[in-house]
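USER:
Working in pairs, take the chain set out below, taking as long as you need, and write a paragraph about the fold.
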Amino acid sequence: MAVFFTLFETAIGPCAIAWSDRGVTSVWLPERTDTQTRARVSRRFPRALESTPPPFVAHAVENIVALLEGEPRDLTDIPLDFDHSVPEFHRRVYDVTRTIKPGTTLSYGEIAARLGEPDAARAVGQALGRNPIPIIVPCHRVLAADGGTGGFSAPGGTATKLQLLAIEGARLL
């Protein structure tokens, strides 16, 4: 499978997006430099080629940029390509997470309940910690049961999660 990527500027800094002919495979939040962001892309996809995005990726980039400028955007129409290495449970978690609207949140336990697995909150958190497509799969909108941030594995950790939630106007407990 051929994978391509591009870097693009957002209100929080330069992000990257990778895609195949089937859909978006990954999004990376900003590192300190473009070189560091490209290095992260290369670690995940050593043969990825930097390229001009096709229309469906340009649409995704446009909507991500707008969302990160505070405009509510629905990103559920963006096609995703989870390769065979993404477990089925994770895919199900990502599907539920994609239904969370900008400015709103769910808890890990609420996602587990929606999956029909109410005791799987910890597994939901682990799946979201491995989310290869942040923003499009908005794992930043998932909080701990007490309203706390929980974890966030992107650069900047929970400070980045809080920044994304603030941009979207989400209210925390």
